[in-house]
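subagent[fold] <- orchestrator: predict structure for attached chain, return tokens only, no commentary.
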Amino acid sequence: METAKLYTVCAFATGLAITLFLAAYLTPSQWWRRANARALLIMVVGAWGFGSLILYAAQGTRPVAAGTLDGATNHPPAAASATTSGPASLPPELIAGRAFQVHRDLNVRAASGVSAARLTTVAAGATVTPTGVREGDWWQVTTSANGREQTGWVSSLWLRRGGE
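subagent[fold] -> orchestrator:
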């Protein structure tokens, strides 16, 4: 089993144990004499809530807000998913020098992040070439825009490999 999955299972199992412990001391004992919807709801919500808190505390990362993905419209792409099968999952040595096609009009920024200054906008269908430098989902790329070559940062969520 992958380490991330194992941590997730352990976090939610611990959340369930915390929920059962608290329920035993904080709710009337007659609630637990028969299985009912209230008991099931308390266990599910408690395990989910405590498990999520444990995962959040263990990872030490901040959640990504829906409007923080980068593109000319600053909205997340419709086809983006939480899976790791996209181009962002490739190791840096496999993406460096390999051309990727821009999914939609794409902002090229001076640094990683939507708060960085916009250098240029690359039109949908154009190609960009990663340098191999990454910061999470942000890739440093070179592109030919407005007749000159430029290096900047883009969100890899807006890039597609050939044939996608």
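orchestrator: received. Logging for downstream: The chain has two domains: 3-59, 66-160. The mean pLDDT is 74.
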